[in-house]
Amino acid sequence: MSKPTYHLFLCSSFRKAGVQRGTCHRKGDGLLQYLEEGVVERGIDALVSSTGCVKHCEKGPVLMVYPMGWWYGSVTEDAVDDILDALEDGNSCDGLLHEAHAEGA
C-alpha cells in the first residue's frame, strides 16, 4: 500500500463513548460523503477520514489537510469544491483557511 499525497480529516463531533455532539456533526451532515466523492471524481491522491471532536466547534465543520497542516473552518459543499480545486494544483485555499492555522500556527 502506498502512502497518499494528502490525508483529509473531517471533524464528525465524536465525543466520549462515541456519541456525536457539536457543530461539525449538525452542520456537516452529508459532508463526509460529498468530500469523498469529490476526491474520487477528481482523481486526487487522498485518503478521507472522519475524526472525533477537534475542539474548534465555533468554526465547525472543520476540515484538516495533512501533511500540510491546513485547517479549514465553517466548511460547506461549496467550500469543499474550492478546497479540492486548490488541492488539484497542490495549493491551499487561502481564503478559507482557519485563522489559527493560516500562517502555520
Give your account of this protein's structure.
This protein has 105 residues and is an alpha+beta fold. The protein is built from 3 helices and 4 strands; from the N terminus they run βααβββα. The chain has helices at residues 23-27, 31-42, 77-88, and strands at 6-14, 46-52, 63-66, 70-72. A hairpin with a 3-residue loop joins strand 3 and strand 4 (70-72). Helix 2 packs parallel to helix 3 (77-88). The longest helix has 12 residues, at 31-42.
> In the CATH hierarchy, what is the architecture at level 2?
3-Layer(aba) Sandwich
- Assign a percent range to the helix content: 25-40%
- Can you tell me the CATH class? Alpha Beta
- H/E series, N to C? EHHEEEH
Which assembly state applies to the chains in this document? single chain
Q: Strand arrangement, largest sheet?
A: 2-1-3-4
Q: Specify the CATH homologous superfamily.
A: Glutaredoxin
Terminus-to-terminus distance: 31 Å
Largest sheet: 4 strands, mixed
Indicate the low-confidence ranges by residue numbers.
none
Outline type: globular
Mean pLDDT: 85
Q: Please identify the structural class as seen in this structure.
A: alpha+beta
Number of helices: 3
Radius of gyration: 13 Å
Count of β-strands:
4
Short summary:
This protein has 105 residues and is of the alpha+beta class. 28% of the residues lie in helices and 22% in strands.
